[in-house]
Amino acid sequence: MPAASLTQTPSRVSAAHRAIAAVFFCNGLGFASWVSRIPAIRDGIGLGEGELGTALFALAAGALVAFRLSAKGADILGTRLQLLLAAALYCFALPQPALVGSHISLIVTLFVFGAANGAVDVTMNALGVEVERQAGRPVMSSLHGMWSAGGLSGAVLGSLAAHQGVPPAVHLALVAVLLGVVMLAVRPSLPEASPAHDTPAAKGRPDATMLLLGAMALCAFLVEGAMADWSAVLLRDTLSTSEAVAPWGYAAFAVAMTAMRFAGDRVTLKFGAVGVLRFGNLLGAAALAAALFTQSLALTLLAFVLAGISLAIVAPVVFATAGRRSRTTPGHGIALVASVGYAGFLLGPPVIGWIASLAGLGVAFGLLVVLMAALAAMSGQ
Question: Do 371 and 223 touch, CB atoms closer than 8 A?
């Protein structure tokens, strides 16, 4: 253990916890702010659906590239400095998509923004693992809860800005300035991640462990991506709800996930992460299966709540475990798992669409039942 970590006092650990929690919140706030203005940015450039899809793919591609490069960069610069540099790029890149006037320039700016977001994602989770190690108790779930709270706040602010007619460039620039001020404020309290030390468990089967964690992230993120894009469609088309009721599905899922992430550290400390993951995902899978069979609106909304609760702690637990079990630094393990998980988030919506086109949306959502059951099975390995 580095000498610096031996001198950590409870007050310094608490300050580091608050600082990295603020980073998680800011990352969620910034990303949701961008998402909330996608329609206005699309209309401003005059893009079709296919062109917008290509631009959004560039954002994802930038993140995937940054996942691996940021782990290597942290080895050279240190995780703390890496986070500060990535955050600076994030703040600079956030308003850029609203300032461009062509499809090509939007692709370039979104690739840069995606890369900055990916670098922040890996490094803030690596520092979250360090804070958890220093604190000697679970904190990753509440940190991810801060990200979700930031996302909800960004969505609300974006809706208000759009309703008031605030131009996307002005809105996103103001958010970027706010995020920059917060990062400067928390900079002195940010910790530095320690290199992970090999343990007998890690030496026994590191590749298998990382493969299992990656598979869990893939399943969880695929379900989350599918819920984000298809839950409202399921309620509207399969259950014949009104357009006003259709968004309730994802709202129920997202609010339940956010609430559970704030409670997740206490729940896993009391009952154990394995038990919570296994029981929660089995219950979520059973509820969703029953909802698809009965086509009941009330049961479907309940199933979405249970799915949000069961998936809430998957990412925090998987990222924290990957950081601890890494043979080098936490960032390397997190980058590997995040890359696989993010691929699942990207694959979820189109996979559901392809299956729905062949067999119907109800059958397609059956895949989510299978994935949550698989998560329950893998959590005990």
Answer: yes
